[in-house]
């Protein structure tokens, strides 16, 4: 009997330990986690210390994250005696973004060699506290965090989420909310799709008509583009970010260790720009900012030297605004019909002995890359830029066909953005009637989670060219911010885990268990996520 009791007690305590582990609903799951039996209680007199100048901003960010829901003052000062210590250490094995986090009853200590690592340690601490910590006003809760020892660092350096603001403009304040969500999921890259046929969204001082004309369309298609007959809403739509707003957003993102990679589409997806500057198109127009979805034949005229001046001037201003290493120049879906008929484009093909229109697009890409390289930047583009003649220093976003392995084998940096697993504009549940209209296709959260960013069959050596992965949010059918959140969440939580955690450590069942409490965090943060079946 006694033995039995012992066994039962042992089993129980073992069970409660493993239950406890499941209750650590951390997303993304850390590289290594050990629990202890202690608990840390954050109370109203708690103080936060940082050890040096590098640790100051992450300490202040953490305080600003913990204040609204606790209602505590949480003063931040230099030193080592605070209840929460933000500690810069030397440890090359933690890399650029790794950290350690120790929680016991006396103190929380976050240690890392970089400010990014310290920031991520803070994000993990938030997830150890009750989910109410994500609320923006005081909550009546005991702020207990379980004792743990965590050592953590990401698998991939490009952990991205793309946002299309051309098809439907999204206000600057919401873009900040979006960035906050990337940061809390330890995603570090926001790919900002700023130009397309349906609207130009960034103020360019040298070309003011981009804000006056290209940023506005007079109406928008109702329903899916395949529906006939077509009808339109008759309501003007548009907007753009001033350079001051952009600078403010870039700084907001920097503090949260999110790099914004801006995209300027070259040479296709460009009618909005051509509507303002028709002389830059092959036919000379007139053009109208597009009110429907799909691929247009219209394209910038590559045979006109003024077009190159336009592109380079735009990129100059973009580089001034965005400090990112990579600048995205699009390159996708650029039909060659106009170039085939255009005497100026044909002349350039002959003059440069390019051979054909595909080589003309490679020429355009190389010119843009040279221009960016002179400024110390790298070019990244959609996988259509991956053609004979592309230089190795350009990185490629793989979105369609089976190109990933070849891109990495060619030595180009690869970002996996594949439409089969990472297009968040597709349906997330099988029953379409239960969801708002989407572009089509089906990307359930399981499918996102199953993706391994390393293309199959790639050698270990070539796998080093895989920068990481990102999901796309194209917004043809996503007019509102609530709808955007519904499409993003909770799929973005799976994206966070597949880009942070080593592929062999993923476990969908375990992830799903952690996701349930994680959804409460989203709830407290005011996110309109999709309810899972
Ligand atoms: C293809 S993916 C596009 C976008 C559309 C998207 C819709 C890519 C590089 N181009 O222009 O919005 O499909 O899913």
Enumerate how many helices there are, as a single number.
Answer: 18
What about the largest sheet? Answer: 8 strands, parallel
Distance between the termini: 45 Å
**Strand tally:** 21
Oligomer state equals single chain
Low-confidence stretches: 1-22
Global Rg: 25 Å
Name the bound molecules: ligand TNX
Shape: globular
Strand order, biggest sheet? 16-9-8-21-20-19-18-17
Percentage of residues assigned to helices: 25-40%
- What would you call the structural class? alpha/beta
Strand content: 15-25%
Q: How are the SSEs ordered, and which strands pair?
A:
Blueprint: H1 2-23, E1 32-42, E2 48-50, H2 53-70, E3 76-78, E4 84-88, E5 99-103, E6 108-112, H3 115-128, E7 143-152, E8 158-164, H4 172-184, E9 189-193, E10 195-196, E11 199-200, H5 209-214, E12 216-217, E13 221-222, E14 231-232, E15 237-238, H6 243-255, E16 259-263, H7 271-276, H8 305-321, E17 326-328, H9 337-341, H10 343-351, H11 357-374, E18 378-382, E19 395-398, H12 404-409, E20 414-416, H13 419-422, H14 445-450, H15 460-463, E21 466-471, H16 481-488, H17 491-500, H18 508-524
Parallel strand pairs: 2-3, 2-4, 4-6, 8-9, 8-21, 9-16, 17-18, 18-19, 19-20, 20-21
Antiparallel strand pairs: 1-7, 5-6, 5-7, 10-11, 12-15, 13-14
Helix pairs in contact: 2-3, 4-6, 8-11
The chain binds ligand TNX.
TL;DR of this structure?
By secondary structure, the protein is an alpha/beta fold. It has helices spanning 2-23, 53-70, 115-128, 172-184, 209-214, 243-255, 271-276, 305-321, 337-341, 343-351, 357-374, 404-409, 419-422, 445-450, 460-463, 481-488, 491-500, 508-524, and strands spanning 32-42, 48-50, 76-78, 84-88, 99-103, 108-112, 143-152, 158-164, 189-193, 195-196, 199-200, 216-217, 221-222, 231-232, 237-238, 259-263, 326-328, 378-382, 395-398, 414-416, 466-471.
């Amino acid at each position: 009997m006694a033995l039995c009791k012992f066994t039962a007690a042992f089993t129980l305590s073992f069970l409660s330990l493993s239950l406890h582990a499941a209750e650590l609903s951390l997303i993304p799951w850390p590289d290594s986690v050990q629990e202890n039996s202690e608990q840390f209680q954050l109370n109203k007199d708690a103080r936060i210390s940082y050890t040096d100048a590098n640790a100051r901003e992450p300490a202040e960010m953490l305080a600003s994250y913990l204040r609204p829901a606790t209602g505590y003052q949480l003063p931040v000062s230099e030193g080592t005696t605070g209840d929460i210590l933000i500690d810069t250490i030397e440890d090359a094995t933690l890399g650029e973004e790794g950290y350690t986090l120790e929680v016991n009853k006396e103190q929380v200590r976050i240690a890392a060699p970089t400010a990014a690592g310290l920031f991520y340690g803070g994000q993990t601490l938030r997830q150890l506290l009750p989910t109410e910590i994500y609320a923006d006003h005081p909550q009546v809760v005991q702020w207990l965090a379980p004792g743990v020892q965590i050592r953590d660092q990401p698998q991939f350096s490009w952990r991205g989420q793309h946002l299309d603001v051309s098809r439907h403009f999204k206000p600057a304040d919401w873009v900040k909310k979006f960035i906050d969500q990337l940061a809390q999921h330890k995603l570090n890259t926001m790919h900002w799709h700023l130009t397309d046929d349906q609207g130009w969204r960034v103020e360019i001082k040298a070309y003011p008509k981009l804000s006056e004309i290209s940023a506005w369309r007079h109406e928008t298609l109702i329903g899916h583009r395949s529906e006939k007959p077509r009808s339109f809403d008759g309501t003007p739509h548009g907007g753009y970010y001033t350079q001051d707003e952009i600078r403010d957003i870039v700084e907001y993102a920097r503090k949260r260790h999110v790099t914004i990679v801006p995209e300027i589409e070259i040479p296709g997806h460009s009618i909005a720009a051509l509507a303002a500057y028709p002389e830059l198109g092959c036919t000379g127009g007139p053009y109208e900012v597009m009110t429907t979805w799909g691929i247009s034949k219209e394209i910038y005229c590559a045979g006109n030297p003024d077009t190159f001046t336009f592109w380079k001037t735009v990129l100059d201003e973009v580089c001034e605004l965005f400090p990112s290493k990579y600048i995205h120049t699009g390159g996708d879906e650029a039909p060659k019909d106009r170039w085939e008929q255009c005497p100026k484009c044909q002349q350039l093909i002959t003059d440069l002995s390019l051979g054909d229109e595909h080589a003309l697009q490679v020429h355009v890409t190389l010119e843009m890359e040279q221009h960016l390289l002179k400024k110390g930047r790298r070019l990244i583009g959609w996988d259509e830029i991956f053609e004979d003649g592309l230089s190795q220093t350009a990185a490629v976003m793989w979105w369609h066909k089976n190109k990933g392995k070849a891109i990495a084998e060619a030595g180009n940096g690869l970002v996996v953005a594949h439409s089969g697993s990472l297009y968040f504009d597709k349906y997330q549940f099988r029953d379409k009637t239960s969801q708002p209209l989407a572009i089509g296709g089906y990307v359930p959260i399981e499918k996102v989670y199953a993706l391994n960013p390393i293309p199959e069959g790639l050698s270990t050596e070539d796998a080093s060219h895989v920068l990481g992965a990102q999901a796309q949010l194209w917004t043809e059918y996503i007019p509102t911010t609530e709808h955007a959140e519904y499409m993003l969440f909770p799929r973005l939580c799976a994206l966070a885990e597949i880009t942070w955690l080593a592929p062999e450590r993923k476990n969908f069942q375990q992830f799903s268990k952690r996701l349930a409490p994680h959804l409460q965090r989203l709830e407290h943060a005011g996110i309109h996520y999709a309810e899972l079946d």
